[in-house]
Design brief:
The complex is a heterodimer of chains A (70) and B (696). Chain A is an all-alpha fold and 70 residues long. Chain A has a domain of 46 residues. Chain A has three helices and no strands. In chain A, 30% of the residues are buried. Chain B has a single domain, classed as Amino acid/polyamine transporter I (Up-down Bundle), CATH 1.20.1740.10. Chain B has 27 helices and no strands. Chains A and B meet through helix 1, helix 2 and helix 3 of A and helix 4, helix 13, helix 15 and helix 22 of B. Chain A: It comes from Brevibacillus formosus. Chain A: InterPro entries: Sel_put. Chain A: Pfam families: Sel_put.
């Protein structure tokens, strides 16, 4: 039962991650996973969810790139 | 059976079926052709083109190599550069390129009948649009995800790069103006639609606060709440519109709405993005995909017959929706869906930074555009399920058909498309609008077409008004987000340019700089919007061709960049792949530009229109549809501005092609130009383990 639940949660996370990527929404899980794989070290911390959210919005909308079409 | 034989049979069968589809839509003599044949012709052609042409381009020019690391792998930072699953990225790319454009263009082009537009959408995408998106995606992917402007500068030269930049700012301004015009025409005198759109502002702000403070970063939760509120206000809008006090309070004229949008656009573009832009962008993205999906399901389930003939008499250029002959004006009226220069900005935007393997590029670049073309075909079907009489009543300016149902019905029946006043008022009642007459801009017409199709699937006539306002809601929300985002993009470009003179302007967080930048862009598009609102011909008639010219100019720039890349790669023998669509587009765009400038018919040429007005004023009379001398003088001035803008587009197009041709000829003469690709880095194989090379 617990195993099934965990599998389901994993699948849900995959779906929500796909939706976020398709619509260009910030994906904190993805950022965290990457951060722990490459930057993680004792004494330093990743951005909090809110910090990352604000950072990602600025990256997407306030850098002057064209993200959409007519 | 041998594998190659099976493949031959299957692909031969698909090709044959597509040919039958084309035969049916072109030669059908009966009452009305079924939309099934349009879909068959389109999707069989797409399948064959994708299987053979995109592979041909990939093999002969690009030599896509999965052992070569993509920017996503090399720079993997978990934020911008992220190796992404092929199908998810396909969705991302499609969501970025598809918008209101592929829905509006075909709707306008339906005035010439369904056939010319459909053929251009299908053939144009296979030979032009999909090739453009694909090759720019490829170019950007091999250059660390650089933008079109940067690639133009590095591969062609500083002149070409500067021209591309000016072109991009100019197209932004015209694009925003024409899309705002579409919204104004859809909301004017419609309290239901106006109320629903007004409600999107508090809803988006609420979402913004929720996603920042209450549940930070929970974008999906926020979006679900926002969508629920949006549907609630769509339902509430009906009650508001029917109320004797609230109904009139949400009824605005075109001029009022235009000013509101201008003020809104300016304020929205300097507000923090988390508050309004981002949450509404999510809402509009979900609505967009939802609308397209529902449209597709509706069409496939009902397979409606087309009421519009294959060709109307307006292929001679006298049509009321837009002026000018089939060549060149059809080819600039439908840009998105066939070839859209704007896509080159998106293809060199976020997508190339997320592509995991080079071999994914054909699906995403070429295939993504084929899918948008499919949306355009569906928009064409939605426009053509209306009887031609109704179609022309919605899409013709009042100056051409008059203002009351009886007069309109007489005029349009006189053109040979029978319609009764009763039909027009009944339809207006069905969708609970005051009128459907002269609602130009494509959105109302499309919404009525979609409502007709949807109500055949679900709800019948009872839900028709709901479906209509749902479709209008989608278009308006989408366009308002584009106005906001586009003004912002324009602001960055202006700040960047002015920053060369006043260094402080380059600081993106400097409020005075932001206000000046946004102000310049807003005044730019606001001017064209007001001009369109005051135009007795209804704005779209004048502005849409200008937008089409701008968009195809950008496509010509993209093809010049693509051709230059091909030449520099030493593949000159295959340069026809981009040169053929470029030659066609340049011919169509420059001819259209020339006619817009110098055509003796005042309906087509800006200058002859100004001259005709001046002559009328000199004779002491007022031109038709104009109320005061000042208004007439203002319109003469507007004509001159339009002429100048049109001329600028033509000069940019010619300039950049000449600059590119200089490089091509030098290469043919044996001169060597280095290709500015990023250095080859070997891929480590599995790119999805999150680690990456991480050199950035």
């Amino acid at each position: 039962m617990r195993r099934k639940l965990r599998a389901m949660r994993k699948a849900m996370r995959k779906v929500s991650s796909a939706i976020k990527t398709i619509f260009g929404m910030p994906d904190y899980d993805r950022y965290l996973a990457h951060w722990y794989e490459t930057h993680g070290a004792p004494g330093i911390f990743p951005m909090t969810e809110r910090e990352y959210y604000m950072y990602a919005l600025t990256e997407r909308f306030e850098k002057g790139g064209v993200t959409r079409c007519c | 059976m041998k594998k190659w034989l099976l493949s031959l049979l299957i692909w031969g069968g698909i090709a044959a079926l597509g040919a039958v589809g084309f035969g049916m839509i072109a030669l059908w003599q009966g009452e009305s052709v079924n939309s099934f044949w349009l879909l068959t012709a389109a999707f069989c052609t797409y399948a064959v083109a994708y299987r053979f042409y995109s592979k041909f381009i990939a093999r002969k020019i690009m030599s896509l190599d999965d052992n070569r690391a993509t920017p996503a792998e090399v720079n993997n930072d978990g934020k911008d550069f992220v190796p992404t699953n092929k199908w998810v990225l396909f969705g991302h790319h499609f969501a970025a390129i598809a918008g209101a454009g592929p829905l509006v263009g075909p709707t306008l082009a339906a005035q010439m009948g369904y056939l010319p537009g459909t053929i251009w959408i299908i053939v144009g995408v296979v030979i032009g649009g999909a090739v453009q998106d694909f090759i720019i995606l490829f170019g950007s992917m091999r250059r660390n995800g650089k933008s079109l402007g940067q690639i133009a500068k590095e591969e062609i030269g500083p002149v070409g790069g500067a021209l591309a930049l000016i072109g991009i700012i100019a197209i932004m301004i015209i694009l925003i103006a024409v899309l705002a015009m579409v919204v104004v025409n859809a909301l004017a005198e419609s309290p239901w639609a106006t109320f629903t759109i007004f409600m999107t502002l508090p809803i988006a702000i609420l979402m913004g606060l929720y996603m920042r403070y209450i549940r930070p970063g929970q974008v999906l939760e926020g979006s679900i709440i926002g969508l629920a509120l949006l549907f609630f206000s769509l339902w509430l809008g009906q009650i508001v519109a029917a109320s004797p006090t609230w109904g009139p309070a949400f009824t605005f004229s075109k001029v009022q709405l235009a000013w509101m949008i201008i003020v809104y656009g300016f304020i929205a573009s300097v507000l923090p993005v988390w508050l309004l832009l981002a949450p509404r962008d999510y809402l509009s993205s979900f609505l967009k995909v939802g609308t397209i999906a529902v449209l597709a399901v509706g069409i496939v389930l009902t397979l409606p017959p087309l009421q519009m003939p294959a060709l109307t008499k307006f292929i001679d250029g006298t049509g009321p929706v837009f002026a000018g002959n089939l060549f060149p004006f059809l080819f600039i009226t439908i840009a998105c869906g066939a070839v859209s220069g704007f896509h080159s900005l998106v293809s060199s935007g976020t997508t190339p930074k997320m592509i995991a393997k080079e071999s994914h590029a054909p699906l995403i670049g070429y295939g993504g555009m084929l899918m948008e073309s499919g949306v355009a075909v569906m928009a064409m079907i939605a426009a053509c399920v209306l009887t031609p009489g109704v179609y022309f009543a919605i899409n013709s300016p009042a100056a051409a058909i008059g203002v009351d149902a009886v007069q309109v019905a007489t005029t349009i029946t006189g053109w040979g498309y029978t319609v009764t006043p009763d039909q027009l008022t009944t339809l207006a009642n069905d969708i609970q609008e005051k009128t459907i007459l002269s609602r130009t801009g494509g959105a109302p017409s499309l919404a009525i077409g979609m409502a007709t199709i949807f109500s055949g699937v679900l709800g019948g006539k009872a839900l028709m008004a709901f479906w209509y306002h749902f479709a209008i809601l989608f278009e308006a929300v989408f366009i308002l987000t584009t106005i906001d985002a586009g003004t912002r993009v324009g602001r960055f470009m202006v700040q960047d340019m002015l920053g060369n003179v006043i260094p402080k302007m380059k600081e993106v967080n400097w409020l005075p700089g932001n206000l000046i930048g946004s102000g310049i862009i807003t005044i730019g598009w606001g001017y064209f919007l007001l001009q369109g609102v005051m135009d007795p011909l209804g704005g779209i008639y004048t502005l849409w061709p200008l937008f089409g010219i701008a968009n195809q100019m950008l496509a010509a720039i993209a093809f010049t960049v693509g051709t230059t890349i091909i030449f520099k790669m030493g593949k000159a023998a295959y340069s026809w792949i981009t040169l053929v669509p470029m030659a066609w587009l340049t011919t169509a765009t420059l001819t259209a530009g020339w006619q817009k400038l110098f055509h003796p018919d005042p309906k087509i040429g800006f200058l002859s229109h100004a001259e005709a007005f001046q002559k009328a004023l000199d004779a002491g009379a007022l031109p038709k549809g104009v109320k005061t001398v000042e208004a007439a003088q203002k319109m003469i001035f507007n004509d001159q501005i339009d002429a100048v803008v049109c001329a600028i587009f033509m000069v940019i197009t010619i300039g950049i092609i000449l600059d590119g041709a200089r490089v091509w000829i030098n290469i043919l003469r044996g001169k060597h130009y280095p290709l500015q690709e990023s250095p080859y880095i070997k891929s480590k194989g599995n790119v999805f383990d999150g680690k990456g090379h991480h050199v950035a």
